Amino acid sequence: MGLVNAVGVVLHPERDCRGTLAVVAKWAHAHGGQVLAAPGEVDRLGAGALAVADGEFARRADLIVSLGGDGTMLRAMRLAATGHAPVLGVNVGRLGFLAEVDIPEVQAALSAIDEQRFTVEPRSGVRADSGGRHELAFNDIVLARIPGNRSAAVGVQVDGHPFVRYAADAVIVATPTGSTAYSFSAGGPIVSPSAEGLLVTPVAPHSAFNRALYLSAGEKLVLTVLPHSGELAVEADGRVVGHVGPGDTVDVTMLPTAASVVRLGLTTFYQRVQRKLRITGSPEAGP
Q1: What is the pLDDT of residue 224?
Q2: Which residue of 107, 166, 195, 268 sits 20 to 30 Å from the alpha carbon of 91, by its own alpha carbon?
Q3: What does the mean pLDDT of the chain come to?
Q4: What is the residue-wise DSSP string for 133-170?
Q5: What distance in Å separates the CA atoms of residue 287 and residue 280, rounded to the nearest whole number?
Q6: What are the E-state strand segments in the chain?
Q7: Cα angle at 87 between 17 and 188, to 5 degrees?
């Protein structure tokens, strides 16, 4: 990372980050850079912060600092999409899976950035196109049953060929980043973030085929809501962004290197997975 002209800051909606904000702002100003924030958050940063629209973050920021949990980190990555600014995740409060550092380590992390002692890790995104709407996510796109309605009946088409029909509570299309989120809780596998592909996982399936499906980056995925399905909510990173019903289709596309995150080499992906998911293995396997 070269000259830092602007640092974008993305805040947890509730947690108090004033001490960490002061550290980030001091670092930015020492480099002659501005501090950018969303209009609804700029007042929390104090004097000197500049409000910018969501669409301006990627174009104007050289670094984006996420102060919060995984939801804040995902929002920061969506803001960073299509731009050159990597995202530094700072965990505020409970253990954040996607964050790189905790609050006490922020100053050291910024010093490491100054000294070029960091790497930038690309993260793929996933885009859902349906009815003229386009939604970007970094964890997952989900077609979910609406309580009180019939179950989700979804046909999966790969490269123009029908492959399988799921009857389930929901169908998740996850990135490798999202493999440790909703997909994992539904029984899906852990996928390395360096992999490039999409993971299709049914939630509480009640059909003959109940397995997850992993597609390569170049394969075209289309989800069709089948005639006997109920109306479904379309979720992007946990946010309800629309609804689809029988006969509707959702085109799902993987976006390689849609954003990038700062890594300081403090932990590996597998160490973070072990810590967050408390993976210890079977006791029968021995110590």
Answers
A1: 98
A2: 195
A3: 91
A4: EEEEESSEEEEEEPTTSPPEEEEEEETTEEEEEEEESE
A5: 10
A6: 6-11, 34-37, 49-51, 63-68, 87-91, 101-102, 119-130, 133-137, 140-145, 152-158, 161-168, 170-174, 197-203, 213-216, 221-225, 232-236, 239-244, 249-263
A7: 100
- Residue 283, pLDDT > 80, answer no
Coil, strand or helix: which one is 44? Answer: helix
The residues annotated as belonging to the active site are 70
Instruction: Find out whether 141 and 253 touch, Cβ atoms under 8 Å.
Output: no
Q: Of 137, 111, 135, which Cα lies nearest the Cα of 262?
A: 111
Contact criterion met (CB below 8 Å) for 66 and 100: no
Residue 284 has pLDDT above 80, yes or no: no
**Three-state DSSP state, 240:** strand
Contact 258, 217 (CB under 8 A): no
Q: Is the pLDDT of residue 75 over 80?
A: yes
Which range, of 23-37, 83-97, 99-113, averages the lowest pLDDT? 83-97
Instruction: Calculate the alpha carbon distances from 74 to 13, 30, 97, 180, 212 in Å.
Output: 13, 28, 11, 14, 23
Residue whose tokens read 């973070």: 272
pTM, two decimal places: 0.92
Lookup result for tokens 């995202």: 87
Count CB neighbours of 146 within 10 A: 13
Examine the pLDDT at 192 and tell me if it is beyond 80.
Answer: yes
